[in-house]
Amino acid sequence: MNGKQDDSRRYVVVVGGGLAGTAAATILAEQGVHVTVLERENFLGGRAGAWTDTLQDGSAFEMERGFHAFFRNYKNLRSLLRRIDPKLRFLTRLHDYPLLGPNGQSESFARLPKIPPFNIIELVRRSPSIHFRDLMKADLDRTNAMLAFDPERTYQERDEETAKEFLDGLNFPPKARQMLFDVFAHSFFNPEERYSAAELLAMFHFYFTRNPEGLVFDVMNQPFSVAFWKPMESYLRDRGVDIYLNSVAEVIEAQGNRYAVRFRHGDESNVLEADAVVLAVTAPGLKALVAASPSLSPLKRSVDSLETTLPFAVWRLWLDRFCHPHRPPFAGTTGVGLLENISLYEKIESESKRWSAANHGSIVELHAYGIPESLTEEEIKRDLLAGMHAVYPETCGATIREERFLRRQDCPAFAPGSHAHRPGVITPLPTVVLAGDFVKLPFPSALMERATSSGFIAANALLARWKLPETRVEHGPTHGIFASRKR
Ligand SMILES: Cc1cc2nc3c(=O)[nH]c(=O)nc-3n(C[C@H](O)[C@H](O)[C@H](O)COP(=O)(O)OP(=O)(O)OC[C@H]3O[C@@H](n4cnc5c(N)ncnc54)[C@H](O)[C@@H]3O)c2cc1C
């Protein structure tokens, strides 16, 4: 399939065309490496991807895996996005990250000081859910752990503990626990009782306590495919990258010091030869590849330790009426059943804005994470609808003109005790590297930023080997302000 290869060039196959694979492909191609991307779906983007769908009236629209928040401390992701839009005009800043609870309760993360512990002091000062006197009763050790993240010690001390045990043990008033912590803890798709407390502490550190940008974020003001993925595909092709969509990598075989990547494209079996391979697939995809490839057996122990967490659901509704004009574009929700957040798409991106203006209705997206596997689609929908009616009562009599429901199970688990065996970018095989939002990194990171950072680090590992210039990988502080560096 490769055709004749040029001895003076390096050849890399990147398996997986999500953010991690795209980040790696970009950095390698920019240094003249010949890259081929294999992607199972018929579009790039993976979990942050989008595809064209058609409404009943025949109009086309771009459907996504759901609302994505682009936090301002996502430095490597922003660097990747700047390849397409140097001024990041396709991102719009939201002014608040409101949290809505039952009976009209709310919290806001807007306009907090940038420096710890002043951000926390101010949050407690103005929060209706907690008072300073409550802090007197809080567990000192656990409260301190929130400001003392240490990439080694925190995992040694807290990785076996569940996030639920940690949060219960904080001894905050139930209302404060619900309003300030539940939404945050659930944002990583894992249920609290199956989520590592150390990982949760890494997330507090990365998103809040050591994030000078604060919890307020940007959104993409056009569909992801239009703003980013289609231009990114052209950017890569312009740099000689071959992109094979609908192509599933099945087996990777060592051939001397090179690799043969066997893949299926429809009914056809094909093979690509390469000097190196970047495995940037989902956790189940990686496990399947390693299981089918004896040459990858040195990765087996760490890769077998990976799991996916419980399913999530995304339900987008095209309503026959508007939500109240003062509703925010996005709000986290808590205490209203399965509902984790609610977005009004006409306030976020251009395509929905046009539909909403023409049809006099809101496009609402409801998310649920860590859903029990036993729940049926009907049960999930009933629960989400009740949640929407509770937080936005004006939707009670609304007719749903159109809907799209996705229930998927491919987000990584960060189970208690999983850190020790979690694979990093570098593997025992010098020219096989890993990338993805489940890969262990040398600094705290998460989700889209973790996927992109891992892709950059994977590309750098290969470039360093071939004495080619590496790209800059940025990250925030590795330690919390109360972490002691003396060991
Ligand atoms: C509902 C939802 C909301 C989210 N919200 C946010 C948010 O607000 N902020 C944020 O930062 N992140 C968010 N995320 C997380 C974010 O989408 C992911 O962290 C990120 O997209 C992961 O990128 P990745 O490249 O690691 O993995 P993926 O995007 O999963 O990419 C892996 C790719 O590998 C392909 N693949 C698998 N096996 C094979 C194979 N054998 N051969 C070829 N290809 C294969 C898959 O098709 C996929 O395209 C959200 C995710 C979801 C699902």
Give an overview of the whole structure:
The protein is of the alpha/beta class. The strands form five sheets. Strands 8-7-16-17-18-15-19 form a seven-stranded mixed sheet. The chain has a five-stranded parallel sheet with strand order 10-2-1-14-20, covered by helices on one side. Helix 1 packs parallel to helix 15 (447-465) and helix 7 packs across helix 9. It is built from 15 helices and 20 strands. It folds into three domains: 11-47 and 224-307 and 414-465, FAD/NAD(P)-binding domain, CATH 3.50.50.60; 107-209; 310-408, Polyamine Oxidase, Chain A, domain 2 (Alpha-Beta Complex). 47% of the residues are buried. The protein has helices at residues 19-30, 75-82, 118-126, 132-137, 140-145, 153-158, 163-169, 174-186, 197-209, 224-238, 283-292, 300-304, 350-359, 377-391, 447-465; strands at 11-15, 34-38, 50-54, 60-64, 70-71, 91-93, 99-100, 106-107, 217-220, 242-244, 247-255, 258-265, 268-274, 276-279, 312-319, 330-333, 339-344, 363-368, 400-408, 432-434. Residues 15-21, 38-41, 46-48, 65-66, 68-69, 248-249, 280-282, 285, 289, 312, 314, 367, 411, 436-437, 447-448, 451 line the site of flavin-adenine dinucleotide.
* Total separate domains: 3
Q: CATH homologous superfamily name of the largest domain?
A: FAD/NAD(P)-binding domain
Tell me the CATH architecture of the largest domain: 3-Layer(bba) Sandwich
- What molecules are bound to this protein? flavin-adenine dinucleotide
Q: How many helices in DSSP terms?
A: 15
Number of strands: 20
In the predicted model, the low-confidence regions spanning at least 5 consecutive residues are none
Spatial ordering of strands, largest sheet: 8-7-16-17-18-15-19
Sheet having the most strands: 7 strands, mixed
CATH topology of the largest domain: FAD/NAD(P)-binding domain
Give the DSSP E fraction (strand runs of 2 or more residues): 15-25%
pLDDT averaged over residues: 94
Share in helix: 25-40%
